[in-house]
């Protein structure tokens, strides 16, 4: 059974715009080969169900740039290398954590940093754990 948690949300680190609508986080994406379109990610950390416009046909291993659909800033987590994107998560008590996830198609890893404590999720979590 699906549970819908509407009591936490996600913000763009640049404009602080809300990226979550209903039960999805909305991103504009663009590949280095010029493909572009909307991608919806599940707001539950560790859930890798992704909704992609089928016309995009992103290939496994492809590097996808995640862009804020509100201010159009690239969400690259530059301080964590070239392969991770960064958003801010705010929980029901208003507490902020930093969430990093892979920009590589098919790579399943997410890192949540709160009060200096790192939690990692996904089958590929070892890939970037040295960056935290
Ligand atoms: Zn923004």
Describe this structure in words.
The chain has 132 residues and is mainly beta. The chain has strands spanning 9-11, 20-21, 24-31, 36-41, 50-52, 64-67, 84-90, 96-102, 110-114, 117-121. The strands form two sheets. It has a five-stranded antiparallel beta sheet with strand order 1-7-8-9-10, with no helix packed on it. Strands 2, 3, 4, 5 and 6 form a five-stranded antiparallel beta sheet that branches. Strand 4 and strand 5 (50-52) form a beta hairpin. The chain is globular, with a radius of gyration of 14 Å. It starts with 8 loop residues before the first strand and ends in an 11-residue tail after the last strand. The structure holds zinc ion. Zinc ion is lined by residues 12, 14-15, 17, 68, 70-71, 73.
Tags for this model:
single chain; 132 residues; mainly beta; five-stranded antiparallel β-sheet; 0% helix; 38% strand; binds zinc ion
Strand and helix map with partners:
Blueprint: E1 9-11, E2 20-21, E3 24-31, E4 36-41, E5 50-52, E6 64-67, E7 84-90, E8 96-102, E9 110-114, E10 117-121
Antiparallel strand pairs: 1-7, 2-3, 3-4, 3-6, 4-5, 7-8, 8-9, 9-10
Summarize the structure.
The chain is mostly beta strands. The chain has strands at residues 9-11, 20-21, 24-31, 36-41, 50-52, 64-67, 84-90, 96-102, 110-114, 117-121. The protein has one domain (9-131).
């Amino acid at each position: 059974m699906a549970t819908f948690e509407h009591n936490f949300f996600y913000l763009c680190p640049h404009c602080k715009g809300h990226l979550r609508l209903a039960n999805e986080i909305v991103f504009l994406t663009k590949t280095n080969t010029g493909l572009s379109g909307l991608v919806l990610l599940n707001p539950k950390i560790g859930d890798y169900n992704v909704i992609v416009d089928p016309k995009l046909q992103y290939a496994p291993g492809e590097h996808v740039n995640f862009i804020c659909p509100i201010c159009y800033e690239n969400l690259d987590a530059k301080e964590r290398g070239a392969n991770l994107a960064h958003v801010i998560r705010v929980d029901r008590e208003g507490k902020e954590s930093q969430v990093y996830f892979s920009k590589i198609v098919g790579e399943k890893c997410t890192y949540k940093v709160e009060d200096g404590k790192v939690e990692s999720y996904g089958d590929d979590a070892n890939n970037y754990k040295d960056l935290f």
